[in-house]
Each structure stands twice: as C-alpha cells, then as structure tokens.
C-alpha cells in the first residue's frame, strides 16, 4: 500500500510524527509512506488552495517533502507531482493538535486535505487529538491517537464501505482527551454543534498605536448532542464521522421548489 500523509500543523509538528508511525504500521513492510506537508503551520485554512500563486515544494529527504502552501495544496502536490506516476492508495491527514469536531470541522486544514483527497478520488481519513486536562500534560499528549490510531484506520479500510460517488465519502476521526488506557472504544457519530462556542475577532492596539484583530475560539469542552462527535470524545470514545462535501440541504429542496412555483 502506498500512503500519502499530510497535516495542517506543519512539517515539523509532533502529531505528524505520530501519523508517520501509524502510516508505516498500516502500509506494512512492503508498503510506502510519502509525506507532503506544509512548510509552515496552516491551521484554520480549511479547504483553501493556492489558486492565484505558485507553491514551492522542497524534498527534505527521501519520500519527505515540504510545500509552501495549504494542506489541500499538499494533497494536490502529492497526487500530481510527487506521486504522479502512481497515485496513493490512501491519504491520512493529521494527527492534528486539538480536536476537529463539531464546528471546528468547517475551519480545519486537516479536514481540507481530506476534502481534496476525496475530490481526487482517493480514500482519505482525517485524524485529530482532542486536548483536555487529562492528556495535555502527559509526556505524549497524542498518546490516545498513537495507541489506537492504526486500529481505527485498519477498521475503516477493512470493514467500512467506500464508494465512487461524485462526492466521495471520507472519514473524520477524533481521539478523546484522555490517556490511551482509558479509551472506551470507537463510536459512529454525526457532526455536533457546540452552543455558544463561536469564533470571534478581538481588537488589540500595538505599542505603536496600530490596531490588530486576533481570531479567538470558544470553549472546546461544551457538550454537544448525544450521538455526535464531541459528545463521544468527552465520554471517552474515538469518534468516527463519515462525511461528504456536497453542501446541498436536501431537506429544503422540495420546500424551496414549492416557494418558487
């Protein structure tokens, strides 16, 4: 198996080292793991692509490349340049430092890489490590992802339906904010919504008198509805959410047709 890995935290992020180990375990002795990751942190860029300017890519060592672009750029670089002679069988994105559950999913560059992978017709899985009081100060805050990541990926590859729909399915995986030994198992979930947890812009004046805006997030441990991703994570489960990038609200289409008559 040939696996392409990327992230949005950057080529030197500790989560990418965790993902590298997971990918090698999945690829096996005869497989290949290729890394194309952003040269600098790209958190929060979503599915951004560098459409109006070129992306510089540098080979740091065999099968390891840094691209001065977004995670989606890295997927495009991996498929159409680095691995142009033989496409990857699987794309893994992460392991993100922090959860990509609930509304975070919409902003995430980690997810953006998988969106692009799915649009390119490659099976794609995003992996993120929820942070909280029980794991932030561990010697390895990614302990839950490191211990259970390969099993989750293997389960999805062996037992989950993949399809060739126009908007292909991909999977969003979040590991709970607890030590590995406390993880209760895996849970199939939907995307949740944290009430009163919105991103916001806060103004700050610099010593030179100039005004700057900082984007701030809200509390990450707000409960979401039962059966959703963040709720499962806070209950000790690895959440696995199947996703597509067709943004149509099908429940409203017939209503809209009636309105437009």
UniProtKB/TrEMBL annotation:
A divalent metal cation binds at residues 8-9, 43, 96. Its main location: cytoplasm. It catalyses: a ribonucleoside 5'-phosphate + H2O = a ribonucleoside + phosphate. It is found in: Cytoplasm. InterPro entries: SurE, SurE-like_Pase/nucleotidase, SurE-like_sf. The keyword Cell membrane does not apply. Its cofactor is a divalent metal cation. Binds 1 divalent metal cation per subunit. Keywords: Cytoplasm, Hydrolase, Metal-binding, Nucleotide-binding. The keyword Nucleotide-binding applies. It is an enzyme of class 3 (hydrolase). GO terms for molecular function: 3'-nucleotidase activity; 5'-nucleotidase activity; exopolyphosphatase activity; metal ion binding; nucleotide binding. Its EC number is 3.1.3.5. HAMAP family: SurE (MF_00060). Belongs to the SurE nucleotidase family. This is 5'-nucleotidase SurE. The gene is surE.
